[in-house]
Amino acid sequence: MTFSDVELVYALLAGVMSVALTVVGAYFEKDKKRGTRTLVWAALFLAVAFGVSENALWNQGYNLFTAVLSFNFPLVAFFGVWFAFLAWLFETRGERRTWIVLLIALVAMTLIAMNCMNCLSF
Fold first, then answer.
1. What residues contact residue 107 under an 8 Å CB cut-off, 6+ apart?
2. Alpha-carbon distances of 95 from 74, 88, 89, rounded to whole Å
3. Among 6, 54, 88, 103, which residue's beta carbon has the most beta carbons within 10 A?
């Protein structure tokens, strides 16, 4: 098993955790404040899953950003639908500020990663 395979397994685990937290925070948590916190954690786990996937692909020689930014429809739809769903969940809870902060963080990290792929490596 190569290092990239291990990274992809961790990305899968983070993605599953994100889906589980999204379901719990959106549908099963009765307390609005705790539900919002759970959804923020779900968004962070989703970001980790995407980031680790991108890093694993980068280590294998693929640049995920060129694939997405060349408007490869399935990838653009995948990322767009996920973010739209999270924005909708926060919007239905009256938490517009939260998803806008997440959007700003997403744009900032994407710009950093696109301009310096090795800057995010440790």
1. none
2. 29, 10, 9
3. 54
Please name the residue ranges forming H helices in 24-95.
32-59, 64-69, 73-92
Residue that is written with structure tokens 């959804």 in the block: 39
Residues 6+ apart with CB under 8 A from 18: 42, 43, 45, 46, 48, 49
Instruction: Pick the closest to residue 44 from 77, 14, 7, 4 (CA basis).
Output: 14
Q: Cα(52)–Cα(35) distance, rounded to whole angstroms? A: 26
Query: Using CA atoms, how far apart are residues 108 and 75, in angstroms rounded to an integer?
Result: 19
Tokens of 30: 């009765």
Q: What is the pLDDT of residues 30-86, one digit of tens each?
A: 888 898 899 999 999 988 888 888 888 888 888 777 777 777 778 778 888 988 998
Q: Are 38 and 24 in contact (CB under 8 A)?
A: yes
